[in-house]
Amino acid sequence: MSIVVIGVNHRTAPIDLLERVSVSGPELAKAITGLVSRANIREAAVLSTCNRTEVFAVAERFHGAYADIRDFFCELGGMQPDELHPHLYSQHDDAAVSHLFEVAAGLDSAVLGESEILGQVRSAWEIAQAEGGTKATLNLLFRHAIETGKRARTETSIGRHTASVSHAAVEMAHERLGGIAGRRVLVVGAGEMGEGIAVALVGAGATDITVTNRTQARAAQLAQRVSGNIVPFSQLGAALREADVLLTCTGAGTIIIDHELVVAARLGISSPLLVVDIAVPRDVAADVEQAPDVTLLNLDHLRDWAARGIALRAAEADRVRSIVGEEVERFGLEATARQAAPLVAQLHEKADHVRLAELERFANRLASLEPAQREAVEAVTKGIVAKMLHQLSVRLKDDAGTPQGERNAAAVRDLFDLG
After folding, report:
1. Do the beta carbons of residue 130 and residue 319 sit within 8 Å?
2. Which residue ranges form the domains of the chain, and what is each CATH number?
3. Average pLDDT, rounded, for the chain
């Protein structure tokens, strides 16, 4: 049994393919349920962000699990395996563990050290737990990943300065325009990313910020936080007419700003409009860049822009990689330890709980026993439990630290509901 990760990310796939395999909300819960129902997958969690969609799984057989997860991606994106294969990557065991830890630490992000990914890893774990996708092995893995991400940001400077996609989008716009102060900025989307953008805009000197969102109450909350204005989502066209800069990051999952809308909104306006779309799937149609005086930037542009800053953080990245290495080793030691003594103790404790419950159930019938007879019943029942569990306990201890031991330990935890 192995821990595996299979997925696509910003380094291996173009944005249009990432859009096709992006999954969120109720569909994410359904995806986890579907994955763990497949023959070769014991546990599963899905991490889907603007930069990646990855499946972490505990696999009975690697090749079988690879085929199951590949088919999942093909069904999700409506594509054939030949179309997907050039962009798909896979790792297993220590390499898969290291990969998740690097992701949580911000080493594998388009913006090196970005802070948003740690919350996204935690959210992916929580959803998988709620759907019954993670059990002993992946729960341990994700707990260590969160600890690694926190440690990386506490002990190094990897997360300082431009440390989120939202902040990077604002900095890219600031650089492209030669400054954001004095510009009329429209933010479309008031979720976590929209909040990050609005806060970063204030930090960059923006004083004229308008927020719109399908849920107006959320737009009002965000606008109040940054001393901005709101417009109803139904008046998006009118808001576009007044804007110098548009930053959009909704979770709509489909195009909300198309060429026709932009051209109609900007009719008779000769001033330039900079559009930055960091949503996945995209909020803005690609042909919007053909509209007069409009510049369209998306995540592909952001990744190219952010790549220039990687060298500035190379020393911090090396320190984070050292932390990841230490945490991978610590995870391995804890995983091995969980296979042996603590598991055996849990197993015996649960069995003894059952034994005592049965004695309690027959308490009335046993009430007439003499103390010596009562002691004999105790000894006999304890002996039966000990003999029943002896061979299993020996096997767990002997195989600890091996693939067979990991498989046995996970099976015992699941079968006896030991958590």
Report:
1. no
2. 2-159 (3.30.460.30), 165-300 (3.40.50.720)
3. 89
